[in-house]
Write a structure and sequence with these properties.
Layout: E1 2-14, E2 19-21, E3 26-27, E4 31-48, E5 55-58, E6 61-62, H1 65-82, E7 87-94, H2 104-119, H3 126-136, E8 148-152, E9 161-166, E10 173-179, H4 189-195, H5 202-207, H6 209-221, H7 225-244, H8 255-269, E11 274-277, E12 284-289, H9 293-300, E13 308-312, E14 319-321
Helix pairs in contact: 1-2, 2-3, 6-7
This protein binds ligand DP6.
The site of ligand DP6 has 16 residues, from helix 4.
């Protein structure tokens, strides 16, 4: 009764920020993302009758309190479906810093969902895995299918899941994650979602959402990189405007974040086509075409405050391994 799974983090082109139902993690709007080949979690689960409690270790640390409860709650969900009461040992490792806007909860809960369901001998469809992963962390449902993904918001738990729009090889787009801060963020995404509705701009952002999703899907269909980049960047700024104007106001950016954003705008004016997006953290995701990666990396390495650069191709979704 053991299994290991690997799942990538994903970067949202159109963001999930605000929930219709917080307990079920049903979002207000559809979101669009790309799975990332070089930022991932690998999670092993073993159910054992000799265990008296669940033990969860992430990156070598045994979880406590809130984080531990959240994982155990997820184990309980799957145990309930499988009709099993055994306790589990969970060991998960990320190859990137946790809680800094590189979507660790997405890869973590996607890998956990695949490993736990397999260890409990459930055989679920991709859609069912996506629904289950969503209950652990919303964005995790997008790390289940391959490549470029859409999460259909839905209105019910059964109707809220992600599916693949295009496989990883469809488009040679890269997400270069620029790490400027490695500290865990002060306000979690879950807390951020819960206050998002207090922003004056919340409803305004949502009122344009259907149109925006339609436009980005067209840009993807046409492989129109300029249009895609324009939408991605505007959407990231919109989401951060909501964050900064909610109560309490959430500022995830560091001075280095602004420095990189300004550099990207400058390089673009000079003829290098690249765009930026950010999740709930200070690290910048630079979106460019594969042919420009070497140049973008060279440029980025000249900016002060850049700690690390992780180049990602579009990736497959969550997989069992071993
Ligand atoms: C800014 O999926 O981390 O990355 O469902 O509460 O776990 P919970 O939230 P989470 O929110 C992700 C927010 C985001 C945008 C996105 O990935 O769409």
């Amino acid at each position: 009764m053991r299994a290991t799974a690997k799942a990538s983090a994903n970067i949202a082109f159109i963001k999930y920020w605000g929930k219709r139902n917080a307990d079920l993690r049903i979002p207000m709007n559809n979101s669009i993302s790309m799975n990332l080949s070089n930022v991932y979690a690998q999670t092993s689960v073993e159910f054992n009758k000799n265990l008296t409690r669940d033990v969860v270790t992430i990156d070598g640390e045994t979880l406590k309190d809130k984080e531990n409860k959240r994982v155990i709650k997820h184990l309980d969900r799957v145990r309930k479906i499988a009709g099993n009461k055994l306790k589990a040992k969970v060991i998960s490792n990320n190859n990137f810093p946790k809680g800094t806007g590189v979507a660790s909860s997405a890869s973590g809960f996607a890998a956990l969902t695949c490993a736990v369901t397999k260890a409990l001998e459930l055989s679920l469809s991709e859609k069912e895995l996506s629904i289950l992963a969503r209950l652990g962390s919303g964005s995790a449902c997008r790390s289940i299918p391959d490549g470029f993904v859409e999460w259909k918001a839905g209105r019910t738990s059964k109707g809220s899941y992600a599916h693949s729009l295009y496989p990883p090889k469809y488009w040679d787009i890269r997400d270069i994650v620029v790490i400027v801060g490695e500290k865990e963020k002060k306000v979690s995404s879950t807390k951020g979602h819960s206050v998002s509705g207090s922003s004056l701009f919340f409803d305004t952002r949502l009122s344009k959402m259907r149109e925006k999703v339609k436009e980005i899907k067209k840009a993807m269909k046409d492989r129109d990189f300029s249009k895609l980049g324009e939408i991605i960047e505007a959407e990231a700024i919109n989401m951060h405007a909501v964050m900064m104007t909610s109560k309490p106001a959430l500022f995830y950016w560091l001075p280095e974040t602004v420095e990189i954003i300004n550099s990207i705008i400058k390089w673009r004016e000079q003829g290098l086509e690249l765009y930026f997006t950010l999740d709930a953290g200070p690290n910048v995701h630079v979106i460019c075409l594969g042919k420009n990666v070497a140049r973008v990396k060279r440029y980025l390495s000249s900016v002060k405050g850049v700690k690390r650069i992780i180049v990602n191709k579009p990736s497959v979704g969550a997989r069992l391994i071993g």
